[in-house]
Structures are given as C-alpha cells and as structure tokens.
Specification:
single chain; mainly beta; Jelly Rolls; 38% strand
Length: 117
C-alpha cells in the first residue's frame, strides 16, 4: 500500500504514492532503474543517513528525517552522480521529484506525518 506523506507543519502533501524501502535489498536498489519520479511519487528509505546518486538518471529532492520524522536536512535538486554527506541525526530519507520540497514550502524543522503505514 502506498504511503501518503504530509508536511504536518505546513499542511501540504509531499507525496501521495510513496514507496517504503525497509529491507536491505529495497534500500540498496532505491530508485535505480527508474527513469523518473512523477508528481506525487516518492520513496522513504529507512534506516538511512546518507545517499548516493550513482547510476541515477534524474535529479531528486532528498529530505533527511530524524526519529520523530522531523526534517533535519534538505538536499534540493540533487543531481545524478553525486552523493550526500552523512547526516548524523537522520534515521531516514524521503526521496521526491526535484522541486517538490520547494513547491511544498518544506524547510528543516518541519514535522512530517506518514499515512497508510
């Protein structure tokens, strides 16, 4: 069942069809093999405190979340063939289409809520 991810601090929907990668294999694969993320799509990777974009074909927004699902760091429009540094306080990352974070007004400190989990 897809997740709906809501920015509870701003009252905006970040994704209404997000996947949830919790197994080792699902986390390892991530978005590899996809040619894009459509509006409303996303992937929550948990646990996760850093990502790479090696072999990716498109940019994404990466929102790193702490254990309470509060945004601790946002990497907007992360390009293919790049990587993030480790985000020490992060427990998960939400990968969204490039520009989705800005369009929703999401900022560090915002609290996200998962629906359908």
């Amino acid at each position: 069942m897809p997740l709906r991810v809501v920015n509870a601090s701003r009252g905006t929907v970040l994704a209404d069809r997000a996947g949830w990668a919790r197994s080792f294999g699902a986390r390892l694969k991530g978005l590899l093999g996809r040619s894009s993320l459509g509006p409303g799509e996303g992937l929550l990777i948990e646990p996760c405190d850093a990502i790479h974009m090696f072999f990716m074909r498109f940019p994404i927004d990466a929102l790193f979340l702490d254990a309470d699902r509060r945004v601790v760091r946002l990497y907007p429009r992360l390009p293919p063939w790049s990587a993030t540094s480790r985000v020490r306080e992060a427990r998960s990352v939400l990968e969204l289409p490039a520009g989705a974070g800005e369009a929703s007004g999401t900022r560090p400190g915002d609290l996200l809520r998962l629906e359908g989990s």
